[in-house]
TrEMBL record:
It comes from Planomonospora corallina. Residues 11-187 form the AAA domain. This is ParA family protein.
Amino acid sequence: EGDWPRPPKTRIFTVANQKGGVGKTTTSVNLAAALSMHGERVLVVDLDPQGNASTALAVEHRGDVPDMYKVLVEDLPLNEVVKEVPDMPGLYCAPATIDLAGAEIELVSMVAREARLQRALAAYDAVELDYIFIDCPPSLGLLTVNALMAANELLIPIQCEYYALEGLGQLLRNVDLVRAHLNPSLDLSTILLTMYDGRTRLASQVAEEVRSHFGDTVLSTLIPRSVRVSEAPSYGQSVMTYDPGSSGATAYMEAAREIAYRGAAV
Ligand code: ADP
Ligand code: MG
């Protein structure tokens, strides 16, 4: 059994930021892996047609493997798509293939087009999950709207660099719209500062600015810029298994611990 508190019900996180390259996928995969290493049962839903989260978790996502496209557009049960992550007990992945790129357009004309992921998750009963992390594409289209509707919590990774806050207003306005019309219980619970370079003044200024805007929503743990973090996915591993002693591994483990204990306090 695990040593971190298990949430009373499944915590569903959407990891979103319409900017690319801010650490959405890295954060989804590593937080999920860290939580699973402490006994939580965790599913990563890959909602980006690039399939980077599937790659990082060493789950097949080429050819005609059943994927999130088939779930969202063809009503395939999520049970038939979810795979166990190799060598990571308690960690699961619903992969994305490039087919998912078509979903953004095909969903437009579908009934309850914003609710398809929510329905798929509600019907999933193969494993009793503690956490779900939905890794979003870098856009605010229907895939991200599905994710925002399906989640109880929003996690925004923010890269500590110039222009970090640009575009955040647009994301937050979308979140307000989703709250008003689709999912009133969506909570911006977590902001994680990523790719922090302690040697630059700019990084600490950005971190300060984000903390003054968002207060306690921002995790105390900063994720440092670290080569080990960027190398791990090409070995199909999380940074905690790839290099457990690295600064990136320590930071993601600590961020996951913060999330687990914050949830326990709710
Ligand atoms: P997104 O999913 O938002 O597009 P990614 O998680 O794919 O962003 O990260 C973008 C790139 O930055 C990837 O190449 C990733 O390996 C790298 N990266 C992410 N976090 C770190 C970090 N803490 N240190 C170094 N490189 C990182
Ligand atoms: Mg990504």
